Every structure is written in structure tokens, then in C-alpha cells.
Amino acid sequence: MVSRVIPVDVFDLVIFGGTGDLARRKVLPGLYRRFLAGQMPEDSRIIGAARGELTDAEWRAQVAGAIAEFVPKEKQDKTAIAGFLERLTYVPIDARGTTGWERLKELMRENVVRAFYFSVAPGLFGDIAQRLSDHGIADAWSRIVVEKPFGRDLTSARALNEVLARHFTEAQIYRIDHYLGKETVQNLMAVRFANILFEPLWKAEYIDHVQITVAETVGVDGRGAYYDKSGAMRDMVQNHLMQLLCLIAMEPPWHFDPDAVRDEKLKVIRALKPVLAQDIVRGQYAAGGGEPGYAEHAENSASRTESYVALKVAISNWRWQGVPFYLRTGKRLRARASEIAVTFKQPPHAIFDDAKGWHENVLVIRLQPDEGMHLWVMIKEPGPGGMRLMQVPLDMSFADALAEVSEDVPDAYERLIMDVIRGNQTLFMRGDEVEAAWAWTDPIIEGWESRDDRPQLYDPGSSGPEDALMLMHRDGRRWREIR
Length: 483
Ligand SMILES: NC(=O)C1=CN([C@@H]2O[C@H](COP(=O)(O)OP(=O)(O)OC[C@H]3O[C@@H](n4cnc5c(N)ncnc54)[C@H](OP(=O)(O)O)[C@@H]3O)[C@@H](O)[C@H]2O)C=CC1
Ligand SMILES: O=C1O[C@H](COP(=O)(O)O)[C@@H](O)[C@H](O)[C@H]1O
Fold this sequence. Notes:
15 strands; six-stranded parallel beta sheet; about 35% helix; alpha/beta
């Protein structure tokens, strides 16, 4: 077994919203797992900050509860948990008031990395940035981590970028998109840019179309208030699906370096054509299987917010001329399955008579749940049956490689937080990228609003609305099964 943990510098990480849902479910359990893996240097500290008047002991007890709930049992090591909890300090603080800021300042140490994680409602991002600056807490060593949603349209995203830029340089701002922290997403870049095999075929001449699917089985239970003002387009497409699209479509960056990668992603976003109304399908899950429908979850019976969206997207550049990218995402679907499927064109001339047995080559990049890559190729059906064709997958799943590594693969949040500490922005969105993504998304949403568009109802546990099937059928193509 090999340990591949890369050491990081000593750090102070302040989590604004340290008692909130995201901190409890993802950030703190993730940090514990990094501690367990030996990646948190001695003397590093985690400081929780929220309005609640808690003592250190009370916050530690809450964090212990979060670890018990959200870390797999086999990773719950009593000694390690005790050691981790000792690193935690809590400061009652009001992002909009004066409470707590002087105490936070006193706690800050010189010459260690300072990271401030804004795990609070987006309306507080500007207040926190302002107060960090006013109290002289943020110095050149400091970084801020900004959660999603980064605005709800171009205007608000611009305003937020401006507020943050008053106090921090772009090199200090880490805008999280947790999809970029997923293992397979990074593997996608390795497969594309560390092999000669794919690049010559990676263009309109050889690729028929690309499908990007992020299907969820969960509904919006408990998050209805946020989600109803957002919908799948803002919640998933503008950020996560857009990032996946960029990584598939971008030109090779000159180096695996934050700005080189982000420059190439930005070019893709700017090259996206406006989407026509007939190329978009919106859906909303109905009640079914004893579960309430979207409208009940959102506590808004008249809601027109989409919990599903499918669209056909085109990129206006040489490489992708005429290649459709079909994107879909939705809640309460048949299975939790996220994947990118790149379907190649037919060979120019068929020499085998078995036309029925023939299928296109497809590269499937599977993000979750069973991450890996499969390249579907044609072979001869084994046996004496003559020259019959069959499709088989070349399996590039990572299970074997992972078994060689002694510790678990960090989840997206763990990896991204450690990247913040290392000062590596490659997997974070730059301000201009986010704005360009909104500039493309805004007209789509404005179109729905101006037409008072109603999403089509779909059955929970299904593959989404009927019209989404038509989106591909009319082009003579089919969605891959969600499984
Ligand atoms: N939860 C999730 O799964 C995800 C969340 N996000 C984003 O993460 C952020 C946090 O979300 P989530 O954890 O769900 O939110 P919660 O409402 O669960 O938590 C909010 C946190 O902020 C604190 N807080 C609220 N007001 C103030 C204030 N004035 N000053 C200081 N602290 C304050 C709260 O504590 P107190 O009330 O005691 O002050 C609490 O700790 C949001 O931007 C959200 O969009 C992104 C992706 C997923
Ligand atoms: O950002 C979000 O992502 C989750 C899906 O993330 P995953 O890692 O579980 O695929 C989604 O449920 C949520 O609505 C959205 O805000």
C-alpha cells in the first residue's frame, strides 16, 4: 500500500457558518478525514464562526455528532476524532454586526496560511469580506472560499465580484464548484491531455454528439425555499454542467495551471450559441410513490420552477461545428447517475454485412456513483457464428488503481479545501468565467419568465418529461438510459 498524501502548510481555517448544514455534512467531516489521512499539519486550526453563543466544548460536541453521522463507521477512529476536535475553536460572530471580530483578530497567527470559508447565505458574503478587511484580519496570506450560488444572474454576480474585489485580489478568491473536485472530473483532463489517443479524434469530424447527464433521486425536500427561487438551470446547469461541458470542449491548455485552464474554459463559454426555445425542455416532478410532488416540497402550489431541464447546446468554433451537446439534469429521477458520454461517428465505409450488430463507439465518463471510464468498441462476436459484431466496453475504471492507495480518495470538498490551503486555484472558477456563464444563462431564464413558461410534469422515478425524449428523437438520437 502506498500513501500519496501531499503535505500542506500549517493553516488557520475559519468557517463562517460553522454550525450550518454544509459545514456539518461536508466541510467538517471532510476535514476530519484529511486529519485522519495525516494531511493536517500539527498546529493547524479550524475556527468555527456563527451567531450562536456556543463554547468551544459545545461546538466540538456538535462536530463530533456530524462526524458520527456523516463519516463512514469504519473511518470513525476514537483517538483520531479526539485529536481532531482539539484543533477546533469557536467564535460567536455576527457577519452584519460588531460581535466577535476583535476576538477573531486576536486568534489569527502570523506567517500561517489563513483561509476564510464563507459557508453562509450568499447575502452575507459581502458583509464578511468588508468586516475582515475593516478589522485588518485579512492579509496577503489570506484566501477566501466562496460557496455557491455565486449570484443569481449576471448583474448580481458582477456586483458580488466587485464587492469581493474591493478587499481581495482575484488570486485570493476561491469560488467553489464542487463538481470540479470530483475524482473523475480530474481524470477526464488526464485522459484527454495525457494521451495522444483521443485528441486527434476529439472534434466535429469524428464526434457525433455529446450527452451530459446529472440525474438525482433526491427531491428538494428541506431546501424548497432556496430551490424554488433557483431551479435546475441556476442550481445545476449554470455551474456544474457548464463546467463539465467546458472540460470536454476546451482546447488543450498550455499547462495544467490555474489561468491556462481557466482561459480555455472561458473561451468555450463565450463560444456557446444562444439556445432556442425549442431546444429546451423544463420539467417538474409530480407526486407519486407516496411522496409529495415538487410544488408541495417547495410549499408553493403555483410554482413554475423547474426541477428538471434538458437542452441542446451548440458551440460556435471550428472544433465543434455542428456537434450537438445534449445536457440534462433533474431531481427525483430513476437513478442517481452522473455521466458524460461522447458518441463517435460511424466509420466512413461499412465492410461487414452485420449492420444490425453495429453500434457507435462511445466513451462514457462516469462521475457517480460507480466512477470510471468505459470505451465501447466493436469486436467480433466470439465463436463460430461468422463475422457477427458485438459491442464491448474497454474498462478504464479506477477501482484497481485506488485499491493500491492506502487511504480513501478524498471527496470533492476535501480535495478542494486542501487546494485552497496549497494556494492552487486550478479547480476553482474565476470571476470572468462565472460572469460569462450567467451571460449565457440569463436570456434562457428571461425567456421562460417573459413567456410565463410552465414546466412539464414528470413522474418521480422516471427518466424525466416526455418532451425531453423528443429533444433527441427528432435529431435521430436517443438519450442513454439513466442507471
Ligand atoms: N447545504 C448544502 O448542501 C449546500 C450549501 N451551499 C451553500 O453553502 C452556504 C451555507 O449553506 P447551509 O450550510 O446549507 O446554510 P445553513 O442555513 O444551514 O447555515 C447557515 C450558517 O450561517 C450562520 N449564520 C447565519 N447568519 C449569520 C450571521 N449574520 N453571521 C454569522 N453567521 C451567520 C448560521 O448560524 P447562526 O444562525 O447561528 O448564525 C449557520 O451556521 C450557502 O451559501 C449555500 O448556498 C452550497 C451547496 C450545498
Ligand atoms: O450543488 C448542488 O449539487 C447537488 C448535487 O451534488 P452531487 O455531488 O450529490 O451530485 C444538488 O443536489 C444540489 O441541488 C445543488 O445545489
